[in-house]
Amino acid sequence: MNQKPALSRSASIWLSLFIYLLAILVAVLVGRLFNGYHPLVMIGAGDLAATILVFFFSVLLNNSSAYDPYWSVKPIVIAAAYYFMLDLESLNLRQWLVYGGTMLYALRLTSNFYRDWPGFVHEDWRYVNFRKSSGKYYWLVSFLAIHLFPTIMVYLGCLAMLPVLEDAGRSLNLWDLAGAFVLFGSVIYAFVADEQLRRFRNVAANKGKTIQTGLWKLHRHPNYFGEISTWWGLTFFAIAAGCDNWWTLAGPFTITIMFLFASIPLIEKRNLGKRQGYSDYKKSTPMLLPLKFLNK
Fold first, then answer.
1. Are 260 and 227 in contact (CB under 8 A)?
2. What is the DSSP letter of 26?
3. What pTM, to 2 d.p., does this model score?
4. What is the 3-state secondary structure (H, E, C) of 151-188?
5. Which of helix, strand or coil describes residue 224?
6. pLDDT digits over 239-250, tens only?
7. How high is the pLDDT of residue 127?
8. C-alpha distances out from residue 193 to 125, 138, 205, 232, 274, Å
9. Using one digit for the tens of pLDDT, what is the confidence trace for 84-113?
10. Would the CA dihedral through 134, 140, 141, 146 be positive or negative?
11. DSSP state, 36?
12. Which of 7, 18, 43, 135 shows the greatest Cβ crowding within 10 Å of its Cβ?
């Protein structure tokens, strides 16, 4: 029952691209059914429909990793949807910065996934553990925890795009400067962390060892630090567009909580059991913030 389809890496990539193109089409069609409703309702309906479609393919392929690119593809689709729904004729500098940063983020994270992905013969280790622990209820768990929950998280993170694109022309301010620095800086930071980890893993002698060089010398999860910071940077632009947009902080706040209490504890537990020297590394190196005094 757990057998994966015997697809090559290239065939898997083409199939994955087809799934996401189809998901985008379904999201657009379902969103149009809610034409006249608030943009957040239209986006939410299309988003849910696309998630259900990807889940269908996860079941069909017996592999929940079909959902993995959704997290990085979705922000670009949502940004484009807002553009067309709000009938924007031109973009101001703040809006261009948000679009540019979102595109850079999506390219970084999506390319990072496909570069190392062996195809549908592989399934993320976290999902494999879910299979073992949930038994016959796995697909219910998969839909709720692996598909729907992350969809909700990214939807909340993208809330910041709405006030920016509805912006009536408030002049640039210090919040824009903070947003640009954090959004673009965090994407670059995560990219560097990913590349350092990739180079470390490509050295055969490092198999089973713990990376403790580069950004990984400063904190144990620089890639997650960059990921979380990206969403805070995006929200700073929403605050720049209007001081009454503090409600958009719900996005980065919930994403931060998710990483602190779900994603990071899972990877920490795994690394303690698989990575040589990780216990000492954990004692001497901060978890998320690159501040050494946190571990003293």
1. no
2. H
3. 0.93
4. HHHHHHHHHHHHHHHCCCCCCCCHHHHHHHHHHHHHHH
5. helix
6. 999 888 899 999
7. 96
8. 21, 33, 20, 19, 20
9. 888 777 889 999 999 999 999 999 999 999
10. positive
11. T
12. 43
